Amino acid sequence: MNDLPTPISFDTALEKFSEHLKSQKRSSATVTAYNGDLVQLKNHFVERRITQVTTLSPQHLADYLTSLSGNNYTAKSVSRKINSLKTFFKFLTQNNLTPTNPAADLAHPKYITSAPRILVPLEYKSLRDAVRLDIRMSAVVELLLQTGMRISELANLHTEDIKKNEVYVRPLENNPGRTIPINHSVSTAIGNYLAIRPTVTDTHLFVTKTGHPLLIRNIRTAIDRFFRVAGVKTVKVNDLRHTFMAHQLSSGCDPQYLSQIVGHKRLTSTTKYLDFVKPQSPLSPRLTEL
Predict the structure, then answer these.
(1) Helices (DSSP H) in the chain: which residue ranges?
(2) DSSP-assigned beta bridge partners for residue 9
(3) Residue 236, by phi and psi: left (phi above 0), alpha (psi -120 to 50) or beta?
(4) Peptide bond into 198 cis (omega under 30)
(5) What topology does CATH give the domain 10-94?
(6) Which residues contact 59 (CB under 8 A, 6 or more apart)?
(7) Distant-in-sequence, close-in-space partners of 110: CB < 8 Å, separation ≥ 6
(8) What is the pLDDT of residue 3?
(9) Average pLDDT of span 127-156
(10) With contact defined as beta carbons under 8 Å apart, do 170 and 234 qualify?
(11) What is the spatial distance between Cα 90 and Cα 97, in angstroms, rounded to a whole number?
(12) What is the per-residue pLDDT for 28?
């Protein structure tokens, strides 16, 4: 009797897993992250002439993770890749694509979670100064800094989503839609941009000179460049979101209200910032201007 498992190639396994993630309505960023980790796993073993995922053992995976540590991957990065392996092989086992789960006993390395990068007033004021002559990017920075929206949500804004005192953030993948109040500085920055926005058929709020939507990667690249111009170091675009949340909590914004504003699914995702700020009291459901 042949007890060997039915061979399943890496390509077939990855295709089925990707379809599963999409059926679960996981975000495109999540699917991309999993795919990147697992393609890296596949390439590692293909180089060693192992092309069937069903032949992998716990020792194979342990050796793979050891190779990552030897290639200067941080403990945090290795831990993320272990999450990908565990999720992947759990799916394969539950769907009878592999007889055993070689990732079941993988242990996460210990690491210290670094504090979120929170810009101080001098830093975000320097960023404002750096973008002030670029009317479009000035509006982008004000929106990110004073609403806490994600860069993907900003890229998905349409002109009709801008109201007098609020902005509507459209549902995006597994994030529901929500309305965020905007202050005078944001309204002014958007108004200045709309006055010079190209007259085009595309209704996205931020567009290029040729009328195409301004893509996430273009927004990120532009803001990174202005960070350098402003002399603000060790900072990323998402740190504007961190800064917004930390500032609002320190100014006395109620965490439950803030959680709704930034679109967190769990309140703990918001309250973790309380470890880094000292909120005023009493708390209230309001936003303050940066």
Answers:
(1) 10-23, 28-46, 58-70, 75-94, 121-131, 135-147, 151-155, 184-196, 216-230, 239-250, 255-262, 267-271
(2) 52
(3) beta
(4) no
(5) DNA polymerase; domain 1 (1.10.150)
(6) none
(7) 75
(8) 53
(9) 97
(10) no
(11) 10
(12) 79
pTM for this model (two decimals): 0.76
Residue 200 has pLDDT above 90, yes or no: yes
121-275 CATH fold: hpI Integrase; Chain A (1.10.443)
3-class DSSP assignment, residue 214 = coil
Q: What is the pLDDT of residues 173-188, one digit of tens each?
A: 778 899 999 999 999 9
Domain boundaries, the chain: 10-94, 121-275
Tokens of 145: 């800094």
List, in sequence order, every residue forming a beta bridge with 179; answer none if it has no partner: 168
pLDDT tens digits for range 227-270: 999 999 999 999 999 999 999 999 999 999 999 999 998 999 99
Mean per-residue pLDDT over the chain, rounded: 92
Return the DSSP state at 105: T
Please list, residue by residue across 23-40, b when 16 or more beta carbons sit within 10 angstroms of its beta carbon and e when fewer do: eeebeeeebebbeebbee
The phi and psi torsions of 189 (rounded to 5 degrees) equal -65, -40
Give, in degrees to the nearest 5, the angle at Cα 202 between 198 and 206: 60
- Residue 199 is predicted with a pLDDT of 92
Cβ atoms 15, 53 nearer than 8 A: no
The string over 113-126, giving b where at least 16 C-beta atoms fall within 10 Å of a residue's C-beta and e elsewhere, is eeebbbbeeebbeb
59-95: pLDDT as tens digits: 999 999 999 887 888 888 999 999 999 999 999 999 9
The Cα 33–Cα 271 span in angstroms is: 26
Do domains 10-94 and 121-275 share one topology? The answer is no
pLDDT band at 119 (very low <50, low <70, confident <90, very high): very high
Find residue 213's DSSP bridge partners: 207
Other CB atoms within a 10 A radius of the CB of residue 85 amount to 22
Place of tokens 């005023």: 280
